[in-house]
Task: structure prediction
Amino acid sequence: MSSTYQLNHLRELESESIFVLREVAAQFENPVLLFSGGKDSILMVHLAVKAFHPAKIPFTLLHVDTGHNFQEALDYRDALVERIGAKLVVGSVQEAIDSGMVREETGFNATRNYLQTAVLLKSLEDGKYDAALGGGRRDEEKARAKERFFSHRDEFGQWDPKNQRPELWNLFNGRKLYGEHFRIFPISNWTELDVWQYLAMEKVELPSLYFAHEREVIHRDGMLLATEGGLIPVREEEKVETLKVRCRTIGDITTTGVWRSEASTLEDIIAEVSMARQTERGGRADDKRSETAMEDRKKAGYF
Amino acid sequence: MSLHIENTELLRFTTAGSVDDGKSTLIGRLLYDSKSIFEDQYEQIATTSSKRGEEGVNLALLTDGLKAEREQGITIDVAYRYFATPKRKFIIADTPGHIQYTRNMVTGASTANVALILIDARHGVVEQTRRHCFIASLLQIPHLIVCINKMDLVDFKEEAYNKIKEDFQTFSHRLDVKDIDFIPMSALLGDNVVEESTNMDWYGGSTLLYSLENVHIGSDNNFIDCRFPVQTVIRPYSDEYHDYRGYAGRIAGGVWKKGDKVTVLPSGFSSTIAKIDSFDGELEEAYPPMSVTLLLEDDIDISRGDMIVRDNNQADVGQDVEVMLCWFNEKPLQPGGTYAIMHTTKEARCKIKEVRYRLDINSLSRDEENKDIKMNDIGRVLLRTTAPLFTDPYRKNRITGSVILINEQTNETVAAGMVI
Result:
């Protein structure tokens, strides 16, 4: 058969993800799409729009908000929600702290990362969502490498890596008992480079944070952290500098490292990513706590 | 660099070997030599290697996964790894070789274009090798690459390689595999993985990476028999798209064009394709594995689980389905028992009508006396379904020829079946 009937790898990944998104719409009653404002969740929304065109996406967007946001990320989120006509629900970590549901960490390296899990589970319960779509990718981290597309969670939201359902061909078993739910990862097979190449190919608009800009930062534990908003207490010996940087992932300010970069276009970013010598999660303070940080968080219900 | 992605294809492969065949080292070597390892990953394994008192950096640690696995020194589950060269992007389904090997290998094999079968050059073809090859042929992986590893431990001798190749061929000709390649290598030293070996001048073939980059996968999909399982119906309910009714799905077979005469299963109604739609506009043609939306000229009642086919080339419609079944669950198959069944986008229930035989995968012989199908067993089984399925033989189409069975109490996926 002629080689003209061969998709390139990005189109094949796109087709696989669209298939998974449509399965979710068909198999679940009340699915929600976890939206962090990061490029992976932007990709997810873009794929969802493509999957159900010309109808609206059949998913509510859920943002688990730590309250420590880059302002650009929030602005981008609100504009996107408006444009696609989706419903947005915000699960607030700040409210959970204020109501005493969770207790905030203190100290120089305090983060709200662990609090997100509790708020996520509460939001899923409150909204009676039976499936939560996440932008997790298997290339990100070794615990993610064993994740399924359809990842079954018990009534406590826990992941049991030893007892996952085998996933064959494109048959996805979304059956569950009452009170259980699924985490679904439609872009499991994408790598960081695939995401950037695809976003460039599709000309998807991104928050300006992803492109090189001047920002006040400090050096800590081999990472650069943004000091914006005074969320990171600066130690006496640490010096605040203004450097040209960009984000490779966008999340909570206190854990999202920024990187020195001159990349001002998607093409520059692709060139940079393909030359990169550090994984993107190399800039995540939350993963650096221990060698099994991600595995431990996932078992507890993190996404 | 910008966007030379037009010709980058996606290749999925699975790896199979017994414990200690050097599988993790081979994958680590592929990732490392193809420059797919990041500094922080490399530093992490370098630290771990020296902590453990190992000489040099143990590349096998790159594929080390979960805490539980590291403690026990084993792999629990299928792990997926990624790397790319300018020619192709690769997805590796890394399956453990020990317990539950059948379940894991079948899972990894179900989507693979290529299977790597590892053989320790000192031990040659062993029982596990035969099992792995049988599973690869059962799952219809189109290409096999037999990696004869640890050649450094047999002094890189050609005789050792030839002996293993001959042994392999004496049983592989009984299997249904179209394309088999043999490569002598040392994953530990890197010979013939990415770099050509300087220790085996007698070998005229290509390296593993070269083979993976060049194996022809253009005909791995079925482009002949048009099959479109409907996933969901798209109805925008907006003024602009008032009468829009699109059938969303992923093409499972054949090349589709506007104007094609089609039949809808199970209703049997005929219509014509009015439009192949997508977010990016109308498409001239669609083929596997594209996800598209089909619009028909006639208003027919079609829903999820129905299948659109060509008038003159239809799938088999029936409630008696004969399958080769791989059993995954600790609870054995219950003859006469009822299970939920998933086939393409269709869900139904089925009864185990008869176990024809259990397959002894060591001798490849049929056991018609002891027909108990337990975890990791394979058997030929006749199913009776509550609703008709629209199937093709698995040999003809891996998508329309496959099913999974689900325990209705626990919702676990208990078996995978291939239609005969």
User: Anything to note?
Assistant: The radius of gyration of chain A is 19 Å. Chain A has two domains: 9-194+292-299, 206-287. The domain at 9-194+292-299 of chain A is CATH 3.40.50.620 (Rossmann fold).
